[in-house]
Design goal:
By secondary structure, the protein is α/β, with parallel strands linked by helices. It has 9 helices and 8 strands. The protein has helices at about 5-10, 20-30, 50-55, 70-85, 120-125, 150-160, 165-175, 190-210, 215-235, and strands spanning about 40-45, 60-65, 90-95, 105-110, 130-145, 165, 180-185, 240-245. Strands 1, 2, 3, 4, 5, 6, 7 and 8 form an 8-stranded mixed β-sheet that branches. Helix 6 links the parallel strand 5 (about 130-145) and strand 6 (about 165). Helix 2 packs across helix 3 (about 50-55), helix 3 (about 50-55) runs parallel beside helix 4 and helix 8 packs antiparallel against helix 9 (about 215-235). The chain is globular.
Length: about 250
């Protein structure tokens, strides 16, 4: 099967979505009562900047990192080896809607910028079985920061992720799914630009030239440019929110 261009476009980049090492550390600092050697599952890890940072932040942890795109996992393995944490990170090619792990296998589930693929409610529900009692699910999710977004921003998100809703609505979904909402916080502007949009923008011109005539690639590039333009204009209306959730029972 041919690799979708959206994957190829992001290969070799620091991140495949908004985020930062500072946000990863902040979220992890909110976890309490972890065992000395917690088992962590990073779902939809991409190139794994956050995976390596978790391993640095928690020297006793062991991390299993999953993604469907093998080049991302290979990039993560190289980064982990360079950082001296490769012996505590295992990569596995697996889809987030069919994770091949036994129930109650992990103390922490981590999902930065990936749950939208399966959907917020579906991810919370289907992944819950993987957590041990009192385990944590830490994730970022796109959310409205205003109740009445601008028509252009609303139109864009209705096209790419119609399930987007407010932070308050997502809190209610999490509680309904059987989690305590320990904390939430928005990602700062730097988390969108420093390791995500800025490196991506630098690549787009060459990609457009190298894929001329490839209708799939041209459509993805055009959509990405539109996404970035929308964010420049309406970043105060939406963003990514970190959710630190704890399994009840």
């Amino acid at each position: 099967m041919e690799t979708p261009f959206i994957f190829t476009m992001h290969e070799g980049l620091p991140r495949q979505g908004p985020g930062s090492n500072a946000c990863t550390r902040k979220a992890f600092s909110m976890l309490a009562d972890l065992p000395a050697r917690p088992e962590i599952l990073d779902i939809g890890c991409g190139a794994g900047m956050q995976t390596v940072e978790l391993a640095r932040t928690c020297p006793g942890c062991r991390i299993t990192a999953t993604d469907v795109h093998q080049p991302y996992l290979d990039q993560l393995a190289r980064s982990a080896a360079s950082a001296g944490v490769g012996n505590r990170i295992t990569t596995l090619r697996a889809s987030m809607d069919a994770l091949p792990f036994d129930d109650a296998s992990f103390d922490v589930l981590w999902a930065e910028g990936s749950i939208f693929i399966i959907g917020f409610r579906e991810g919370l529900t289907s992944w819950k079985r993987l957590l041990r009692p009192g385990g944590y699910l830490c994730l970022t999710e796109a959310a409205w920061f205003v109740d009445d977004p601008s028509p252009e921003a609303a139109s864009f998100w209705n096209e790419c992720y119609p399930a987007i809703t407010t932070v308050a609505a997502n809190r209610a979904i999490a509680e309904d799914a059987g989690y305590e909402v320990v904390a939430t916080f928005p990602l700062p502007a730097s988390a969108w630009w420093d390791d995500y949009y800025t490196p991506l923008i630098e690549r787009l011109a060459d990609l457009r030239q190298n894929t001329a005539g490839n209708s799939e690639a041209e459509a993805v590039i055009e959509f990405t440019e539109r996404e970035i333009a929308i964010h420049r204009e309406y970043a105060d209306e939406y963003g990514y929110q970190f959710f630190i959730l704890r399994k009840l029972g």
